[in-house]
Design goal:
The chain is an alpha+beta fold. The strands form five sheets. Strands 1, 2, 3, 4, 5, 6 and 7 form a seven-stranded mixed beta sheet that branches. A five-stranded mixed β-barrel has the order 8-15-16-18-22. The protein has twelve helices and 22 strands. It has helices spanning 9-12, 16-29, 85-102, 136-151, 218-221, 228-243, 259-271, 276-279, 351-354, 392-397, 448-453, 500-503; strands at 34-50, 53-71, 74-80, 121-124, 158-174, 179-197, 202-207, 251-257, 309-312, 333-338, 341-342, 364-365, 374-375, 379-382, 401-413, 419-431, 434-439, 442-447, 455-458, 465-474, 479-487, 490-499. Strand 10 and strand 11 (341-342) form a beta hairpin. The chain is globular. Helix 2 (16-29) runs parallel beside helix 3. Helices cover 22% and strands 37% of the residues.
Length: 506
């Protein structure tokens, strides 16, 4: 358990124990061989300013409970927003009825990987200032002040500032005896400067690189967490330089990719590809399946031997960091790619036995009390060089003619997580091992195995940084999860670079 915070009293005051007793007892009496209940509250706030003026401020709360059962070897699920013991018992019986109704459609009996019971567990994420205790006017004042710094710089015509804030609280209990209470906070602040060329009828943008994090409001006001002053000072000059930067020439190019860009390539080409439900075709309706199928486990050459990718639900301040998943499985770290070879998948308690493993690695999550928990991505990260603390400048010095890629922007990837294309926020020319101004209209394109097979060198621990997203989508009905990806800077040889304007026929 994090020692910095405790679970909010108003969540603990909900009739959690009474709901648990009523739901689990009713489920067992109705014939369930397994039952669990999840009381789930999510508070969300979105704040957006344009040119220092508040454009929107929204708050929402999603509160309810879900009962999941196994009856006749089949899953059943039901949920409700009314937190009363009688409703909980009725909901549990309804979940059993659903399981029995689906039994004729079920082709295989549900088998859960075993997990120890955690009878009185509490976990709270690490943060200092609960952002929901900070007055909205104070938050708007911080974002407004950041906006005016950008607007006061020459060449900046507009500034967009936003912050997304989430507090998520869950209580999980099951018939095996687990009773787990958790609370986590995350936020994503973002600033964007816009310059407009009235004569040409065009515009350019430049966005901050600060990632979303599992922290509190101290991320915007504290020291040592992110250097907002430096970035807000730097952006206007970078934006002016971008306006007059030459277009890139298409063709094979050596790339040094910064963690602020590489995290998204990891997410799409490794994170989604190593979801076991995708790999076996169980998940296909939302963004497709995966080329990394189970018969390739232990043999697929994903990348060069320096490639070591871990899945992790324990890293400090990660967006997918948690104490226990939505099946009561304790958080873990494990390998997905080791020495360049595919060695693991993301699993929940249902999929672990299919792969012949004795235990789930804790990847079950539902984004709402009214959604079924599914296998979701943990924090998936490329590990730094364990032997040499190589700096980003050292990687750049290894390139005679190439590009340094910074910040994420648009992307696309096929339904097998194999053919992809990514752009970025900033592209710097590398000439004779040194940065030499910016390029524009840049994208890089590859297949997953060709790309990671071109990785020649990686940075050391000092270059490793967590990036991530609030909005990873999956399933039907669609669910959204937040996930972080850590990585060092990395050098890739001979990656195909596209000129986006030429590709668009402009």
């Amino acid at each position: 358990m994090s020692l910095s915070r405790s679970v909010d009293d108003d969540f603990l005051a909900l009739p959690i124990r009474a709901l648990t007793d009523a739901a689990l007892s009713a489920a067992v009496e109705a014939g369930a061989s397994h039952a669990d209940i999840r009381v789930h509250r999510t508070q969300s706030q979105s704040l957006r300013l344009r040119d220092g003026v508040v454009q929107s401020a929204t708050d929402s709360t999603d509160l309810g409970f879900a009962v999941r059962v196994i009856a006749d070897g089949t899953w059943g699920f039901a949920s409700h927003a009314q937190l009363s013991p009688d409703v909980a018992a009725d909901t549990a019986r309804r979940a059993v009825d659903v399981a029995r109704a689906l039994r004729l459609l079920n082709r295989e009996t549900v088998e859960l990987a075993p997990e120890p019971a955690y009878p009185d567990a509490t976990w709270v994420s690490a943060y200092d200032t609960d952002p929901f205790t900070v007055p909205l006017l104070d938050k708007a004042a911080v974002l407004g002040e950041f906006s005016h710094r950008l607007l006061s710089a020459a060449g900046v015509h507009h500034a967009i500032a936003s912050c997304l804030i989430v507090k998520e609280q869950t209580y999980y209990a099951d018939t095996s005896g687990s009773r787990i209470t958790q609370q986590r906070v995350r936020l994503h602040p973002q600033l964007e400067a816009i310059t407009v060329d009235q004569n040409a009828g065009t515009f350019e943008t430049m966005r901050t690189l600060a990632p979303p994090v599992g922290r509190g409001w101290e991320y915007l006001t504290g020291t040592g967490l992110w250097d907002w002053d430096a970035e807000l000072t730097e952006i206007p000059e970078l934006l002016r330089e971008k306006l007059t930067a030459p277009p890139v020439s298409a063709g094979p190019t050596d790339l040094v990719i910064d963690p602020t860009n590489l995290w998204l390539t990891i997410h799409e080409s490794i994170g989604h590809a190593t979801e076991y439900d995708r790999a076996i075709g169980y998940e296909a309706a939302y963004a497709g399946t995966s080329f990394a199928t189970p018969e390739k486990l232990g043999t697929l050459r994903y990348g060069t031997p320096i490639m070591h990718v871990t899945a992790d639900r324990t890293v400090d301040h990660g967006l997918a960091t948690i104490g226990y998943d939505d099946e009561g499985v304790a958080a873990q770290q494990w390998d997905l790619v080791r020495d360049g070879t595919l060695v693991g998948y993301q699993l929940d308690r249902t999929f672990a036995p299919r792969l012949g493993l004795p235990r789930s690695n804790g990847c079950s999550y539902a984004d709402s009390p009214h959604h079924v928990p599914i296998q979701r991505m943990p924090n998936v990260s490329l590990q730094p060089d364990p032997n040499v603390d190589r700096q980003t400048d050292d990687l750049i010095a290894m390139v005679d003619n190439g590009i340094y890629v910074v910040g994420d922007k648009s992307w696309s990837i096929d339904m097998q997580r194999y053919n992809f294309q990514f752009t970025g926020q900033r592209f710097y020319r590398i000439r004779n091992g040194k940065l030499a101004g910016q390029f524009r209209d840049v994208a890089y394109q590859a297949t997953t195995t060709d790309f990671w097979g071109s990785m020649e060198a990686i940075g050391g621990t000092s270059t490793w940084r967590l990036g991530g997203a609030f909005n990873c989508g999956k399933a039907q009905p669609g669910q959204v999860a937040a996930v972080s990806h850590g990585c060092p800077s990395a050098l890739f040889r001979g990656v195909n670079v596209l000129n986006t304007k030429e590709e668009a026929g402009a």
